[in-house]
Amino acid sequence: MNTFIRLLKKFILLAIPLMLVCAYTFLNPMGYMSLEYPMWVEERDAVHGPFDSSEPEILVVGDSRAKSGIIPKEIVEDGSIYNIAIGGSTAIEMYFAVKNYLKNHRAPEKVLLIFAPFHFTEMDNWDQTLYFNYLSAAEVLEVKKDAVRYGTKKVNHNGSFADLLSFSLRLPNKYMDALITSRFNGNRAANLKKYAAVREDGGYTAFGEDEYNDGLSYETHKEDFELDPLVDEYYIRLLDLLKDEGIDVIIEQAPLNTASHEAIRDEYFADYDDYMQGIADRYPSFSVVKGVPEYDNSCFGDNNHLNRRGAEKFSREIKEKWFGE
Question: How far apart are the first and last CA of the chain?
Fold first, then answer.
């Protein structure tokens, strides 16, 4: 009996540091997470919580090209537009974002929907979605269930349930590197500043600060436009949700830089246009734009995203095209 008690005490003593680390990762993620984390938190707060001003009439939905390409104040200055796009997201994250938004807010009159062609073909940031605990455990399990039909290994690989548990509990095997790199609280000031800046800009943020970038976009690494069936299913779910709510939907295309536009095969663009035409046929009440525009390399802050100057240009064009008086 005494031996058991001694072993139990040793176990408790060994477990205390682990419990303290897990508690810290839960309570202070702003202290150690990367600078992209506050963008996701700000978006999640906008989706689930109240706005400082009136409810938006226009909602921007999509991935990082929407996040960094649409400046709400360039379109409407009175705060009636908000950008809830997320860097690296696909239709999967945005389906749940819009679903949760509609539970907590009045439905917007219009949704401006923008995804990179690449994000119809690959779930490149699914691990980040889990790492940031953006989706609830129930939502992740729903995705995993749907992924079984398509054999999506990105979602249902060996060890994926163990990963989900580790992320959900914020275990050190997933977060210790970030804790050490940040010295536990070294990123807090920068992350809080980024959160405030994104909120002040109506959900907009830049992903690149270059004044000129001729790097090649994600799409240039693909020979063909090969649709990911799981992403496609959630894109249709997202569009059905918007349609059922009676929301006016505008599907736009974010620009690529000249270097990327020239490098992408014509067949890739043609197949993507065919996909968009299928969407237009399926949802005749939606405004669906085909054809990915080309902007000069000087409008890009990195190989995939517009810089501030490019975003101002794109936002003004969107305003004149869809929201002009």
Answer: 82
Token digits of residue 232? 């496609």
What is the rounded CA–CA span in Å between residue 20 and residue 233? 41
pLDDT in tens, 251-304: 999 999 999 999 999 999 999 999 999 999 999 999 999 999 999 999 999 999
DSSP string, 278-311: HHHHH-TTSEE--S--EE-GGGBSSSSSB-HHHH
Per the structure, the count of domains in the chain is 1
Residue 320 is given by DSSP the state I
Write out the two tokens for 287: 């405004």
13 in a domain, yes or no? no
8 Å CB contact between 179 and 25:
yes
How many CB atoms are located within 10 Å of the residue 12 CB? 10
- Pairing, β 110-114 against β 256-257: unpaired
Global pTM?
Answer: 0.94
pLDDT digit string (tens) for 108-130?
999 999 999 999 999 999 999 99
Q: 305: which strand partners?
A: none
- Of 220, 218, 214, 219, the closest CA to residue 301 belongs to 214
In a domain, 22, yes or no: no
| Inter-residue contact 144 to 135 (CB < 8 Å) | no
Contact 123, 234 (CB under 8 A): no
CATH number of the CATH domain containing 86: 3.40.50
Which pLDDT score is estimated for 9? Answer: 67
Amino acid at 262: E
User: Domain limits at 56?
Assistant: 27-323
Tell me which amino acid residue 273 is: D
